[in-house]
Amino acid sequence: MPVGTVAKGLSMEHQNQAPTADSADVVVVGFGGSGAAAAIEAHDRGARVLVVEKASEEHHSPTTALLAGGAMFGTDVDQTHTYLAACAGNLIPSEVCRSWAEEAAVLRDWIDGLAPEAFRMAPPKPSAEFPHLPGAAAIESSFGEFTSADGEWSKGSGAHLFDALRRAVQRRGIEVRYGARAQQLISTDGRIQGIVVDTETGPHELHAHRAVVLATGGFEFDDELKRQYLTGGDQVHFYGSRYATGDGIRMAQAVGADLWHMSNMAGRGVGHFVDTEGRVVNAIMLLDLKWVGLNDPVGYIITDRDGHRFADESVQAKLGHSFYYEMLHYDAEAGVFPRIPSYWIFDQRRFEAGPLTIPRYGSSGAAGYAWSDDNSHELDKGWIHRGTTVEEVAAAAGIADPSAAADEVARYNRACAGAKDPYRSATMDMTPLDSPPYYCVKLWPGGTNTTGGPRRDATGRVVHAFGHLIDGLYACGENGSIIGERYPGLYAYYSEVLSSGRIAGRNAARKRCPTAEH
Ligand SMILES: Cc1cc2nc3c(=O)[nH]c(=O)nc-3n(C[C@H](O)[C@H](O)[C@H](O)COP(=O)(O)OP(=O)(O)OC[C@H]3O[C@@H](n4cnc5c(N)ncnc54)[C@H](O)[C@@H]3O)c2cc1C
Prior knowledge:
Pfam families: FAD_binding_2
Low-confidence stretches: 1-10
Largest sheet: 8 strands, mixed
Mean pLDDT: 91
Structural class: alpha+beta
Bound molecules: flavin-adenine dinucleotide
Domain FAD-dependent oxidoreductase 2 FAD-binding: 25-481
Radius of gyration: 24 Å
Organism: Rhodococcus opacus
Shape: globular
Number of strands: 22
Cofactor: FAD
GO molecular function, one term: steroid dehydrogenase activity, acting on the CH-CH group of donors
Distance between the termini: 23 Å
């Protein structure tokens, strides 16, 4: 293939270099959860597999390794299928939901078998996020457990889950090439023949005898894709892997792939801070500390840019996903998103109760930022505002009408004493904001990851914009997830990522038909 046909995707310094070449049966692009699952499955089906990863081994931090580390399962394929299809709305075809339901039924055993000496799943519990939807009773989730040095099993994280995947990959002798960024697919007459990677030494062609699997994650750190596809655009911020720049989306588009649900994601309000050196720290924000096992009652409200409350903040406190949609309200007359940013107001009780985020969680942790235990460093940096009155802190944070925020706090406090609250259905969990000084932090829509990308069929094969299947091209994980409108339940992304990785790997390992099948 002439170099000129692939040169556009390469870095400037390598554009005139002739590529070197080698090959495998299946080339997997991206070594996160979905790529590892695809590689393991393709290998176990008899394929010679090569994984390319754009991060160096030293800096490799796929989203999969950044906390959590559980999975969602289904106890009954038919019911799980019904539930997943109901959550997907009409974004994902029924047969694609079914393919996930079939994997979800066996996923727990598969994970337990990855590296049994190091990682296993805890007993599952019911976990459907929408228990009223049909089939919800079949949905359950469990967190992972890892063996510590003394041989005891403890609650694990995404890093432990990824360690189990890495062990399983290594045990099989599957080669992982780090520092190898896939730039472009090699396509001949509509058939995908391999990829071109940009390495330190120049462009390198990798030929895939059977298929290429794009497991490159989402587009959380590509501002242009966010601007064009997400409601809220580049004001939406993520705390996942910085390597998630939509590379797999662009590579698939370049060979004619259709894209699906690019604007869809399961989000929440997140912290977004920039320090004096320009370093960005995006962080999950804990309105109360129940999520990390502490039960100190604390008060909180969230207002829009004018100081008015607009929704039930306890949804955000519970880290549910509905509050995100409330934040995306658009005022077409004014041409603004009046709830971006929103303003979280709290008092000394919450400030003292513990860090506002989970230190070393997500990308802020991966980037080496350690949130202080007493929030003092972030107060000094101006990421947290403080005032002796609500009005003072609201003004300091930039709320347009600080007196409106003070009125909201007064009304909220009356509701805590028994008056009717416009947004919360019960006063039980409402603690007054009456312990000065007061604090305020800006919240932005965002979260862990995007889900849009190339459309796939039930076998993980990428679908062309004109409806036929692209020969030799598969996708999995966040790169065009098969989660549709609603997030089904605890650890659903992990479930989708591992299930869709297995589906893609299994089918990619099949020998090709001599002619392209459309
Ligand atoms: C802090 C945090 C908490 C989370 N908690 C949960 C949870 O509780 N439950 C849940 O279900 N999900 C959770 N998630 C989401 C879940 O972790 C992700 O959806 C999932 O891990 C994504 O897996 P992936 O394989 O698609 O992508 P990744 O794990 O990001 O892997 C993609 C890989 O591809 C590489 N890559 C990208 N472009 C290229 C290229 N051009 N060439 C070569 N390599 C490339 C990247 O460097 C990366 O290593 C959480 C995410 C975060 C950040």
